[in-house]
Write a structure and sequence with these properties.
Elements: H1 6-34, H2 38-65, H3 75-89, H4 94-125, H5 129-171
Bound molecules: fe (iii) ion (2 copies).
């Protein structure tokens, strides 16, 4: 596709997000399974449900554009998930691994926030108000998820990880 109009770039970016969300649908259950904290597991399970809705909203946007959502691979999401899966394979203190899983998940959310913010703005500019509204709703959910991850990290997982690390350090005499 020759990117000679904002409309084409808009569709191209929507396809990227559609592929990204579908990759995430497969990755989130693994992240939930890999997390030790119940709250973190719950957060991933909740976001899995939201992600199903994100896919549906994108399908709605495509239907109104008379376009197909398929045809692109989001290589960035592939990389982010790959990096996240490295943490899942690691051995270590549970809370330290959870803190690492949160980092990976927040990188994913920030990527989606950038993508949705951009397509929402394109939709507005192109006068596609219904699409802009749908994309804004998803954007808000991505932001809320990021905020929830911040809270989990700050109030539970990170302090616990620090404590476990300090104990481990003291224990080994370093
Ligand atoms: Fe999403
Ligand atoms: Fe997300």
């Amino acid at each position: 596709m020759k990117l000679d109009s904002l409309q084409k770039l808009y569709i191209d970016e929507l396809r990227d997000l559609y592929n990204a969300e579908n990759q995430l649908l497969k990755a989130l259950p693994k992240m939930a399974k890999g997390a030790s904290s119940e709250e973190l597991k719950n957060a991933f399970e909740k976001h899995l449900g939201q992600t199903e809705t994100h896919v549906e909203r994108l399908e709605q946007v495509f239907a109104e554009l008379n376009q197909t959502p398929k045809g692109k691979t989001c290589r960035a999401m592939k990389g982010l998930i790959e990096e996240g899966s490295e943490i899942l394979k690691e051995d270590g203190e549970k809370s330290v691994l959870d803190a690492g899983i949160i980092v990976a998940a927040q990188k994913v959310e920030h990527y989606e926030i950038a993508g949705y913010g951009s397509v929402r703005t394109f939709a507005k500019l192109l006068g596609q108000d219904k699409a802009a509204e749908l994309l804004q709703t998803t954007l808000d959910e991505e932001s809320e998820t990021n905020e929830l991850l911040n809270q989990l990290a700050e109030t539970g997982v990170n302090p616990e990880a620090l404590m476990e690390t300090e104990l481990a350090t003291t224990g080994s005499g370093r």
